[in-house]
């Protein structure tokens, strides 16, 4: 059975892959001259990269080995402007299941420090699934006038998440 540290190294790969996928989504919207959607997903990409770096820092602080993995190329072509958000929601749900399993692995190993570390990520994933679900509803409703999605994001994207205040430290500092 893989250890928490081995599973966390695997999760680093998933977080970097999620970051790359969000860049591909952002580029799609940038090419469509949808700057609010593009900015939203560029920001999401940075968040996912920082999640990976938080995991790297945890392993470094624990004296464990860190593996920086290669990741598969992300999906870059989409049938319409709804498909990228649907893909993003599926990705967030998948990452939530992965993070939940990491917390279970830590608990089963009796590693309370690791379990506590995962607590922030569980809260973050709840917020990510909720906000991506809402965005998907908006994009589906406005699929025939995506410029109204731009207006929605311009209104709704003010301020940062209160979760960021209590975030674990990231290797190299949060950029």
Task: Quickly describe the structure.
By secondary structure, the protein is mainly α. It has helices spanning 4-31, 35-62, 83-108, 112-141, 147-156. Helix 1 (4-31) runs antiparallel to helix 3.
Q: Helix- and strand-based class?
A: mainly alpha
Q: Give a short account of the largest sheet.
A: none
Order of helices and strands: HHHHH
Q: Strand percentage, roughly?
A: under 5%
Mean pLDDT reading: 93
Low-confidence stretches: none
Specify the helix fraction band. 55-70%
Structural domains: how many: 1
What is the number of strand segments?
0
The rough form would be described as elongated
SS field, number of helical segments: 5
Please provide a written account of the structure.
This protein is mostly helical and about 180 residues long. It is built from five helices and no strands. It has a single domain (about 5-160), classed as Ferritin, core subunit, four-helix bundle (Ferritin, Up-down Bundle).
Give descriptors for this structure.
175 residues, mainly alpha, Ferritin, 0% strand
Which helices and strands occur, and which strands form pairs?
Blueprint: H1 4-31, H2 35-62, H3 83-108, H4 112-141, H5 147-156
């Amino acid at each position: 059975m893989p250890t928490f540290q081995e599973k966390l190294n695997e999760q680093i790969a998933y977080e970097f892959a999620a970051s790359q996928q969000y860049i591909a989504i952002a580029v799609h919207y940038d090419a469509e001259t949808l700057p609010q959607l593009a900015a939203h997903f560029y920001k999401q990409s940075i968040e996912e990269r920082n999640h990976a770096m938080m995991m790297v820092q945890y392993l470094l602080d624990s004296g464990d080995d860190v593996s920086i993995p290669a990741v598969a190329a992300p999906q870059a072509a989409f049938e319409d402007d709804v498909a990228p958000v649907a893909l993003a929601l599926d990705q967030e749900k998948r990452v939530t299941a992965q993070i939940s399993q990491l917390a279970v692995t830590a608990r089963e190993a009796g590693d309370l420090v690791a379990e506590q570390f995962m607590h922030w990520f569980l809260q973050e994933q709840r917020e990510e699934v909720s906000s991506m679900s809402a965005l998907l509803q908006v994009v589906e409703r406005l699929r025939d006038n995506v410029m109204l999605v731009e207006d929605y994001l311009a209104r709704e994207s003010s301020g940062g998440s209160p979760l960021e205040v209590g975030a674990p430290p990231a290797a190299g500092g949060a950029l």
